[in-house]
Design brief:
The complex is a heterodimer of chains A (about 210) and B (about 600). Chain A has about 210 residues and is an alpha/beta fold. Chain A contains ten helices and six strands; from the N terminus they run βαβαβαβαβαβααααα. Chain A has a six-stranded parallel beta sheet with strand order 2-1-3-4-5-6, with helices on both faces. In chain A, strand 5, helix 5 and strand 6 form a beta-alpha-beta unit. In chain A, helix 2 runs parallel beside helix 3, helix 4 packs antiparallel against helix 10 and helix 8 packs across helix 9. The longest helix of chain A is centred in the last third of the chain and has 15 residues. Chain A is globular, with a radius of gyration of 17 Å. Chain A starts with a strand and ends with a helix. The N terminus of chain B is likely disordered. Chain B has three domains: about 270 residues, Rhopdopsin 7-helix transmembrane proteins, CATH 1.20.1070; about 110 residues, no CATH class; about 110 residues, Histidine kinase-like ATPase, C-terminal domain (Heat Shock Protein 90, 2-Layer Sandwich), CATH 3.30.565. Chain B has 19 helices and twelve strands. In chain B, helix 2 runs antiparallel to helix 3. The longest helix of chain B is centred in the last third of the chain and has 69 residues. Classes of the chains: A alpha/beta (about 210), B alpha+beta (about 600).
Chain lengths: ~210, ~600
C-alpha cells in the first residue's frame, strides 16, 4: 500500500513514517503543509493520504480542508485524518461531503500501528473509519430518556461498530456472526431509534453520529 | 470676553476669529439716540424725495417717471431703514443693522440730486452720497449672517469697495464741473465742492468708477454663488433670503454701469435704464425683507433658547440639552462637545469621544468657559451668532451638569473597556497555554510513544519478553498521560470553540458532561471570541454547578435576540447558593447581564 504522510511537526512525522514503514506500508512522499500535500498527492498518486488535522498556516483545520480537496479531485485516493482532538464535529465534517474512503483517528492510535494499518485497508476498500474513542464517548453520553436504553448489549455493540464506519460484512467478521444476522440487528436498531434505513452504508455513519449527538 | 454675574465667562471663538471687529458690547452713549433718530430722518428723506420726484425732478429722476417707480423707490429705501432698525434692535452683533439704515437713507440721494430748485449744497451732498449705496450693501451682504466679515479676504474686499467709492466721490466733487459735463444727468449746474474744473480727469474718474463697479458687482455675484454652493443644510437655508436678492442687485448694478459706458447720458425715460432701476429696487426690497426675517428669526431662536431649561424637565437624559438647543435654533446639525480636562479631549453627552469641533463655512464654534475652565464647545449654524449671550444661568448650570454626567459616562466606558481588556488578555493567555500544550508537550509525548512502540517491536522481534512487557507498561502510561494532557488542554481552553464556534463547542461539552445536557441551540453564527468564550464558560460552570447540586439534567438554550446573545441553563437540582461571581464579572465586563436563580441562570451579552 502506498501512502503520503502530511504532518508539520518533524518529530511526529518521523515517528509516523517509521511506524508505517515497519508495518510494511510504503510511504512514497512526505509533506509539511496542505499545499505541499496536494502537490505530492497529485504527483505520487498514493492509495491513501495520512494527514495531520492541524498544519500551517493557521494550525486549525487545514487537514480537513485538504481532505475535502483530495476527495473532490481524486475520488480513488483515500484520506486518513490524524487528530489530537476527540471532536465528533470534526469527524462529522470530514464525512459530510465524501463519506467513503475517509477516516478520522486520534494520533495516539499510531502507536497501535495494527489499528492504523487496518484503518488504511478499510479506507482502500471504500469504507469510512471513525475513531472508537469518539464513538465510545458518544455512546456513553448521558441522556434523559435514553433511547439507547432500549437496545440489547449486542445491538449496542453493533451500533458502535456501525458508527465506527464498519460495513455489515466487517461487523459480521468482527463478531463472528453471519452478515444476515448483522443486517437483522441493524434493521432492528434503526427501527428502535426511529432512523430511516439508508441503502448507502456510508451515509448511515453520518446519520448515526448525528443521532448520537442530538 | 465678558464676565457675567453668574460667574461663567464666555469666549467666542468663531471662524476667522474677529473679536475686535464690529460694535463693542457696551454701546456708545450716542448710538441709541442716533438709531432712534434714524426712523424719522429716513421718513423725512423719503417724503422729501417723493415731493422732488413729483415736482422739479419729474424728468430728471426715475421716481418722477411714474407712480410705480416712485412707489418702488420709497418702499426700497424705507424697507432698508426699517429692516436695519429691526436688526440693530434685536441683535447687537456687528454693524449690519446700522449699515442697512444708512443704505436706506442714501438710497434716496439720486432723487435729491434732481432737486433743481433746491440748495446747491444739498444737491452736491446727494452727488457725493449716491455712490455709497453699493459699498454699504456690499459690506452688509458679505457680513451676513453674523454681522461680521468672516475672513481677511472679504474684509479687504469690502474696504477696497468703500475706498474706491470714497476716492471716486472725492475726485468728482473736487474736479468735476457739472456745467462742463456733456453727459450730466440730474444735476447739470451745482457742485459746491468744486476746487478746479478738470473735465478730462472727471471723465477718467467716471469711467474708472464704472469699470470698478462692474468688477465689484461681479465679485459680489461670485462670492454669493460660492457661499450658496459651499454650504450645506441649515447654513445654506439661512443664506437664501439675503444672498439671492443680493445677487440680483449685483447683476443689476453691474448692468447699470455697463449701460452707462455705452449710453453716457443717463435718461430715466430710456426703457433699459428703467428696467434696471425697477430690478434694483425690487432686489433691495427683497433684501430688506430677508434682513427683517432674519431679525425676527433671531428673536424666535432667542426665546426658544430661553425656554429650553423650562422644557427639559427634572432629570433630562444625556444629550437632551443638545437636541433642545438644536430644536430651538432650528439647526439639526448643532453639536455640543464637552471638555474633559483629565484626558484633554472632547466627548458627547453620552461620554463617547468626539473630535474637537471645528468651524466650517456658515458654522460657528462657541466655547463656554467657567472661571477660565472650558466646559463645552457648541458647533452651530451662524443663525444666532452671539449664542453664548443667550444662555441664562439655568442653561449654563444644565450644561455644566451634563458635562459632569458625560465625564462619568466616559469614565464608566473606560472602566468597562478596561475590564473587557483584562478578560480578553486572560482568554488569550488560556488559548496560548492550550496551543503550547498541544503543539509542544503533546507532540513530544506522541513522538516518545512512537519511539517506545518501535522499541517494543524490536523487543518482540528479539523475543525479549521482559523488555517487551516493560515497554507495554510504558506505552499504557504514556497513553494515559496523553489522555490527561488532552483533557487538561481542553479544560484550559477548548480549541473547537475558536475553530468552529459556540454550537460545536457546547455539543462537545454535552458529549462528556457528567449529567445529561439538552442543547437548544438556535444560533449557528459566530461571535467575537471574547463573547463566545464568556457564553461557553458560563454554560460549563452552570452544568458543573448543576451536577454538584444533584441535578438529573440541564437544559441549555442559546438564542440571538435584538442584538444580544442570550444563553440560559436550567436544571432540576437543589437550589444553588454559590454566587457565580466569575461568570458575573466576565459577562459584566462585556456590558452584559447575568440573572441567577436557584435552578436557572441566564446571561445576555450585547453583540451588535
Amino acid at each position: 500500500m502506498r501512502v503520503v504522510v502530511a504532518e508539520d511537526i518533524m518529530l511526529t512525522r518521523e515517528g509516523i513514517v517509521r511506524l508505517l514503514r515497519d508495518a510494511g506500508v510504503e510511504v512514497v512522499a512526505e509533506a509539511e503543509d496542505g499545499e505541499a500535500l496536494l502537490r505530492e498527492v497529485r504527483q505520487a498518486q498514493p492509495d491513501v493520504a495520512v494527514v495531520d488535522i492541524k498544519m500551517p498556516p493557521t494550525h486549525t483545520d487545514e487537514g480537513l480542508v485538504a481532505a475535502r480537496a483530495i476527495r473532490a479531485d481524486h475520488p480513488e485516493i483515500g484520506v486518513l485524518v490524524l487528530s489530537q482532538y476527540i471532536e465528533p464535529s470534526y469527524a462529522m465534517r470530514l464525512i459530510q461531503d465524501h463519506p467513503e474512503r475517509v477516516g478520522y483517528l486520534l494520533k495516539e492510535r499510531v502507536f497501535d500501528i495494527a489499528i492504523v494499518v487496518d484503518a488504511l485497508r478499510r479506507i482502500v476498500d471504500g469504507e469510512t473509519v471513525i475513531d472508537p474513542t469518539i464513538v465510545a464517548r458518544l455512546l456513553s453520553r448521558r441522556r434523559r430518556d435514553d433511547p439507547l436504553a432500549g437496545l440489547t448489549d449486542r445491538e449496542r455493540e453493533v451500533l458502535g461498530l456501525v458508527a465506527e464506519g464498519m460495513s455489515n460484512r466487517a461487523i459480521a467478521a468482527r463478531l463472528f456472526v453471519t452478515e444476515r444476522t448483522v443486517e437483522a440487528h441493524v434493521t432492528q436498531i434503526l427501527l428502535k431509534l426511529g432512523l430511516a434505513e439508508s441503502p448507502d452504508q456510508h451515509r448511515r455513519v453520518l446519520a448515526v453520529l448525528t443521532f448520537l449527538r442530538a | 470676553m465678558a464676565s457675567t454675574n453668574t460667574g461663567i465667562t464666555l469666549v467666542d471663538t468663531r471662524a476667522g476669529g474677529c473679536h475686535n471687529h464690529g460694535v463693542p458690547r457696551v454701546l456708545a452713549s450716542w448710538v441709541r439716540p442716533a438709531r432712534l433718530a434714524a426712523a424719522p430722518l429716513g421718513l423725512a428723506v423719503a417724503v422729501g424725495a417723493l415731493l422732488i420726484a413729483a415736482g422739479p425732478g419729474m424728468f430728471t429722476t426715475y421716481a418722477g417717471r411714474s407712480g410705480l417707480a416712485a412707489g418702488l423707490m420709497v418702499t426700497a429705501g424705507l424697507a432698508l431703514v426699517l429692516a436695519g432698525l429691526l436688526a440693530s434692535l434685536t441683535s447687537q452683533a456687528g454693524p449690519a443693522g446700522d449699515l442697512a439704515v444708512l443704505a436706506g437713507i442714501v438710497w434716496f440721494a439720486p432723487v435729491w440730486v434732481g432737486w433743481e430748485v433746491g440748495p446747491p449744497l444739498v444737491r452736491s451732498i446727494g452727488m457725493l452720497a449716491a455712490g455709497f449705496v453699493f459699498p454699504l450693501l456690499f459690506y452688509l451682504v458679505l457680513a451676513f449672517p453674523g454681522g461680521r466679515l468672516p475672513a481677511m479676504g472679504t474684509r479687504a474686499l469690502a474696504w477696497a469697495v468703500y475706498l474706491e467709492a470714497a476716492l471716486a466721490a472725492l475726485g468728482l466733487a473736487l474736479f468735476r464741473d457739472p456745467y462742463l459735463d456733456p453727459a450730466c444727468w440730474a444735476n447739470c449746474t451745482d457742485n459746491v465742492f468744486l476746487v478746479r474744473s478738470l473735465p478730462a480727469l472727471a471723465r477718467a474718474v467716471t469711467a474708472a468708477d464704472r469699470w470698478f463697479t462692474v468688477a465689484a458687482a461681479t465679485t459680489l455675484l461670485a462670492v454669493c454663488a460660492w457661499r450658496l454652493l459651499a454650504r450645506r443644510g441649515r447654513a445654506r437655508v439661512v443664506l437664501v433670503p439675503i444672498v439671492l436678492p443680493a445677487m440680483v442687485f449685483a447683476a443689476a448694478t453691474g448692468a447699470h454701469a455697463i449701460a452707462l459706458s455705452r449710453i453716457p447720458l443717463e435718461d430715466p425715460g430710456n426703457p433699459a435704464f428703467q428696467l434696471i432701476f425697477d430690478v434694483q429696487n425690487a432686489a433691495v426690497i427683497l433684501l430688506a425683507a430677508g434682513l427683517a426675517m432674519d431679525a425676527v428669526m433671531t428673536v424666535v431662536h432667542r426665546r426658544g433658547v430661553a425656554r429650553i431649561v423650562a422644557n427639559l424637565g427634572e432629570a433630562p437624559a444625556p444629550g437632551s440639552l443638545e437636541s433642545a438647543l438644536a430644536r430651538a435654533l432650528g439647526d439639526p446639525d448643532l453639536r455640543v462637545a464637552y471638555w474633559l480636562p483629565d484626558v484633554q479631549s472632547y466627548v458627547d453627552a453620552q461620554g463617547r469621544p468626539v473630535a474637537e469641533p471645528a468651524a466650517a463655512p456658515g458654522r460657528l464654534v462657541t466655547a463656554l468657559m467657567q472661571q477660565d475652565r472650558r466646559i463645552a464647545m457648541v458647533s452651530h449654524a451662524a443663525t444666532l451668532p452671539e449664542l453664548e449671550r443667550e444662555f441664562g444661568a439655568a442653561i449654563r448650570l444644565g450644561l455644566e451638569n451634563e458635562r459632569l454626567q458625560a465625564e462619568i459616562l466616559f469614565q464608566l466606558s473606560e472602566v468597562r473597556a478596561s475590564r473587557a481588556r483584562i478578560v480578553q488578555a486572560g482568554d488569550a493567555e488560556r488559548r496560548r497555554l492550550e496551543r503550547n500544550l498541544h503543539d509542544g508537550a503533546q507532540q513530544r509525548i506522541l513522538a516518545l510513544s512512537y519511539d517506545i512502540r518501535l522499541a517494543h517491536a524490536s523487543a518482540e522481534a528479539d523475543a525479549d519478553d521482559r523488555t517487551r512487557l516493560f515497554l507495554e507498561q510504558a506505552l499504557a502510561d504514556v497513553q494515559a498521560g496523553l489522555g490527561d494532557l488532552r483533557e487538561l488542554a481542553h479544560g484550559i481552553y477548548p480549541a473547537i470553540l475558536t475553530e468552529a464556534g459556540l454550537g460545536p463547542a457546547l455539543a462537545t461539552l454535552a458529549d462528556s458532561a457528567s449529567i445529561p445536557v439538552e442543547l437548544h441551540d438556535t444560533v449557528q453564527r459566530r461571535y467575537p471570541e471574547v463573547i463566545e468564550t464568556a457564553a461557553y464558560l458560563m454554560v460549563a460552570e452552570a452544568i458543573e454547578d448543576a451536577a454538584g447540586r444533584g441535578a438529573g439534567y440541564a437544559a441549555v438554550t442559546v438564542a440571538h435576540r435584538d442584538g444580544r446573545l442570550t444563553v440560559t441553563v436550567e436544571d432540576d437540582g437543589q437550589g444553588r447558593s454559590a454566587s457565580m461571581t466569575e461568570i458575573a464579572d466576565r459577562v459584566g465586563a462585556l456590558g452584559g447581564i447575568v440573572t441567577i436563580e436557584p435552578t436557572w441562570m441566564g446571561v445576555e451579552i450585547p453583540c451588535g
